[in-house]
Amino acid sequence: MVSTTGTVRATRYNVGEHKHRGDSTYKLAVKWFVDTRDRSDLVQAVRDGTAVRCVQGNECRGYVYNAQNLAVSPDGNHVASQALNHVSMRSAPDPDEVMISPNAYWWFTIVSTTGWREMSRWTVGEHVDRGHTSDKIGQKWFVNH
Asked: Which residues contact 64 (CB under 8 A, 6 or more apart)?
């Protein structure tokens, strides 16, 4: 994962196992940008098959991800996004960075423009349930036109 500081952190696991194989850290020059639109533009973009990115959190703590599966509600007023490849993170030694958690877990989410989020967590490399939650969160939606 990359931080605004330019630090890139990687954590390696064996495929299908919960065996930690090591970490690496290096620096890159990174450019960041943002583009926003109205929710009706979001609905139309999803109908058109446009790629969507989502932001959860605030200025101090949050994350950006690509929506992997999208659906428009039957009334056409809301969008739901599914993400299937998040791995748990924690604060890094530099307070402006994050890193993969020890005893890492996958977390899968479905988030809607209504504000509801469903989340399921599973141990990396093992079929071990780490819990399920349903809560209301703020999220921003971004589309490249």
From this structure: 53, 54, 55
Cα Rg, the chain, nearest whole Å: 17
> Alpha carbon of 131 to those of 4, 16, 75, 122, 134: distances in Å?
30, 20, 31, 7, 11
* Helices and strands per DSSP (H, E), number in the chain: 1, 12
Distances (CA, A) of 21 to 12, 26, 39, 117: 5, 17, 43, 32
Token digits of residue 98:
């994050």
Kindly report, residue by residue over 41-76, the tens digit of the pLDDT. 788 888 988 888 888 776 666 778 889 999 999 999
Q: State if pTM tops 0.90.
A: no
Kindly list the distances between the CA atom of residue 49 and the CA atoms of 69, 133, 145, in Å, as whole numbers in the listed order.
10, 29, 11
Tokens of 74: 């039957």
